[in-house]
Amino acid sequence: MRLGNVSLPVLASAVLCLGALISPAHAVPSQPWYLAAFDHVMRVLVNNEAPAVQMASGSAEQQNNVDPAYYSRVTKEAGTITLRGNVPSDGDLKVLQGVAAAIAPGASVVDRTRINPGVPNRDVWLAAMTFALRQMGKLNTGSASLRNAAITIEGVTNADDDFAVIQKKVREEAPKGLNLQVALKPHDVRPFVWLAQLQQGAVHLSGHVPSEQDKVIFGHAQVLFQNLTINSSMEVAKGEPKGWIEATKVSLEMLSLLYSGSVAISDKVVKIDGIYSSPAMVDLLKVYSKRLPEGFTLETSILEPVARAPAARAEDMSFAAHQARASYNP
Q1: Domain 71-185's class?
Q2: What is the pLDDT of residues 270-314, one digit of tens each?
Q3: Given 1.20.1200.10, 3.40.1520.20, 3.90.1150.10, 1.10.10.10, which CATH number is that of 193-328?
Q4: DSSP, res 227
């Protein structure tokens, strides 16, 4: 038989070995505590006595003292983790302080809690608060608020982390039975850089993109480049200038006028390199450039097409794309 991922024989051996280390002064002669504990575990697992034991161990007075609005909170800011609200006991507080020290080495842990034993379900509370502290370890700044079995995680991700990955991990790690609300924000970046490259039958999108806008940009690229493969490694971040989404759409439209090339946006500067697909596109690009939002500037380094073999043109563009990546890739 197994208890979770632990074999019961192994558990029995561990309990017995631990008991062997306890001095006689700490043991009851008739039945040491560790044998009684192991006996209880066996009876619960084999005879399913857990409900009866729980009912017997909790008095009517304790059940009446349950706080229906039990509230606990943890915050992380400027290298400090602060514990607030209710904790069931001093022992539970020490557990939280230990977890906080482990997930944020070197951080200060401040106690602003109060002891309130009226927690509706201590096991659920402890699992939720431990989960909350682990999430604080993933964030630059943030908070977690727990009210009974409902928890809200808020905060800003670290600059080097993938926003989408962090969001996914928070949801995956939540204990079962919790009502989880997640309100994370991506980190701020300066400069805010985005890049699109058109070469060898594909368009690759990379760099920074505001939250919820990556699908918009990807969809716009699919409309413009219907016969090409669209690849994306865009990373969600904050710090985009006003008018960024409109400028990015126009930049993709200008890129679609090229045989091959790239467009990069760094804050409010748009740079385009490459080769026109035909001479007619020269004047058309000037028309498109006037659609850029106010405050954005355009810099171009685009060659007009010449009569040469496709292979030679591709070789030239390979060099141009390499230069663009070296200069503008975030």
Answers
A1: alpha beta
A2: 999 999 999 989 999 999 899 999 999 999 999 988 754 444 444
A3: 3.40.1520.20
A4: T
